Amino acid sequence: MTQTTMREAFFHPSAADPATDLRIDDASLVVLSSGETTLVVAPEVGGSIAAYYGVVGEGASQRVLHWLRPATRAALADRDPLRMASFPLFPYCNRIRDARFAFDGREIDLSGDGNRYAHALHGHAWRRPWRVGARTSACVELQFEHVPDPQRRGDWPFRYRASQRIELIGDALRVTLAAQNLSESAMPFGMGHHPYYPRTSNTLVTADVEAMWHAGADVLPTHLGSHPAVDALEAGMNADAFDLDNNFGNWKRSATIAWPNEQRSLTMTADAPFDHLVVFAPANDAQLCVEPVTNTTDCFNADEDTRDRSGYRVLQPGEAISAELNWKPQRD
């Protein structure tokens, strides 16, 4: 699909083409609403958010403003989280080199778990269904529990529970991520969310970051250092300015995605320990991700010198963690 047609295929609640209409009356979806704002959640597609939009204007002038890149009906039918608006990352973020790392005196081998990538990617919770818990018209709680299966090749060998509380507060979106180690031993851990944003030729991304993790051809980090994108992000970086799939360190946990020609913007804020930011803005592509995460790519394989800067984290038996992410729309 070309960049133009991909952008045109976005879900619209009154789309004439049924192939791109997400059908919010689908029983597998959870639809939340607050005023003129709607959030569509797809629990069975990795606990993903499928759409987040507001309706403005009246009558013939009414239009839909998508704050995240919406899924299509085809994406939902294919159960493809990578084509959703956003999906959760548990029990780690980004890639693990060759799907292997050493922990507590043993090798953890995640290869062959069904992930089609050479390196383990984004954990596994995004590729499995989540259970719907308590819900109201503007809020839903999703739960996921992983019990290791020693007969399943590449399975994550630690038991844990994860949850998402997804809610609309006015027109703002809040997602509270939480997890608890249910194993009898310590467990390496990371979490995050993977939001996609509408990308146009003048989309701007603004964030205060200290440095960028440079990466090789395999998109694995080589070193933390300076890059023109660091200054560009502080000033307001055009999404087309660089070819990026990189982690940024020591961001101030606030980033704004703006569409100046549409006179609107979306500001994302995060609690600690979401101390790392991923910007995925590949050249000649319609995708744009600005992701809050707790750990950098391949942090489980980080050496002693970089481990503290990578977000490497261990949850002790019974230990729990929880933190909020917020997205606030603004129209000029």
Automatic annotation (TrEMBL):
The name this protein goes by in its record: Aldose 1-epimerase
InterPro entries: Aldose_1/G6P_1-epimerase, Gal_mutarotase_sf_dom, GH-type_carb-bd
Origin species: Paraburkholderia azotifigens
CDD domains: Aldose_epim_Ec_YphB
